[in-house]
Amino acid sequence: MTRHGVVGVSAVCLLLACGSDGGASEGTDTSGAAESGPSDSSSETSETSETSETSGGEAPIPSCKCDGVEDGIYVMAVVGNAPRVKLFDPDALTFTDLVAPTCAGQDKMTPGSLAVSPSGAVTIAFGNDVAQTGALAQGSLVDPSTCTLSPPDPWVWKAVTYIPTANAEACETLYLYHQNFGSTSATASELARWDPSTNTRVLVAPTPHPSGEMTATPAGRLFALVEDTSQIVEIDPKTGEELTGFSVSGIDFQGGYAFVFYRGDFYIFNSVFNGWTETFTNKIWRVGFDGAMQAVIEDSPYVIFGASVPPCE
Questions:
Q1: Which of 160, 206, 205 is nearest to 180 (CA)?
Q2: Using an 8 Å Cβ cutoff, are 18 and 100 in contact?
Q3: Cα distances (angstroms) measured from residue 139 to each of 53, 100, 152
Q4: pTM
Q5: Pseudo-torsion of CA 164, 167, 170, 173, nearest 10°?
Q6: How far apart are CA 132 and CA 186, in angstroms?
Q7: pLDDT tens digits for range 87-115
Q8: Distance separating alpha carbons of residues 189 and 218, to the nearest angstrom
Q9: N or C, which terminus of the chain has less Cβ within 10 Å?
Q10: CB of 175 within 8 A of CB of 201?
């Protein structure tokens, strides 16, 4: 995700075909001082400990199978002045170039968030600062020749994630998060899901957070990274209510950043602009449910402004 006026990438198309740029890797594992925040009440350290049953006798959330996706973290990175889709391996600490679908047009749009579904569907949310509109580009990693664009929408800088639900879309349900920067209202933002039959968003509920990226777990839990308060919070995907949260203070969110759940931990990618040298320092953090943080890469080669792990097994 990028903030207004930060990492201003001019995208010639919504989903770019990703060419090779060397895929530089980080060969060493660096550790930052762990910083503890309030513990999440569920204290999960593994996704297998979660339940897939919904409350109140509702239909169970399906166990989604991975089909057409790879193990790792999908990211959008800035290479030169163009966004690229890559696969980050948290074990080897390497990046691999991927080929993404290509949509024509939208040369004034800036990419802000990435979502990849269990079947390899890809959604990138774009915003237009000038027109104050947003749009979704949707395609497939399985068949990069396909790509469709949503109509312009008044929601700008939408965070997007796929999440398993008990509704008709099941494992392919796309959630959107509208961020109202600078607002302190208790309903500063809104949560919605995407209706593929009408190509429109369906409002779920207002949320109390003015901005943030989103990620989901295979069990259907939804988490948001709230930059203004430096917190990771769990949000009820049916009501928009905040369930619990903990601090990730000490991470700078004033530049580009991304956030994702992977193998029982959260990963945060943040980039800090160095004004004197006009360069970015790009850090990658692993954060546990107890708030413990470790910097796994002190300075990666890329500014990351979107990340996604398909919520599947």
A1: 206
A2: yes
A3: 30, 8, 17
A4: 0.79
A5: -70
A6: 22
A7: 999 999 999 988 766 666 555 677 788 99
A8: 24
A9: C
A10: no
